Prior knowledge:
The protein has three helices and six strands; from the N terminus they run ββββαβαβα. It is an alpha/beta fold and 115 residues long. Helix 1 packs parallel to helix 2.
Amino acid sequence: MRVAVTYENGNIFQHFGKTENFKLYDIENKSITRNEVISTNGQAHGILAGFLKAQGVDVLICGGIGSGAQEALNTVGIKFFAGVNGSADEAVKKFLDGRLEFDSNPKCDNHTCKE
């Protein structure tokens, strides 16, 4: 399994559509076997779902996310956990332990966002 986290300075970046980096974690038997930070190369909003799919991502952990981006992720088959804050590494560990707290009805809180 491959998990992606919106990433900035060790923490979960809070606006999916404007994230500049993702931290990717390769998971085997509920353990992290590899991780790396990758750039979105300026891609944004709905395009990010295809970008993540091309990276082999199965699960996304993020902060705020608009309805258009949610639909795009659903279309490409990426499960997402939104409304998550704090350390990216800790969030992935909690996900693996089944303890990740997330918002089941996430919204983008940026009033200019049209995702």
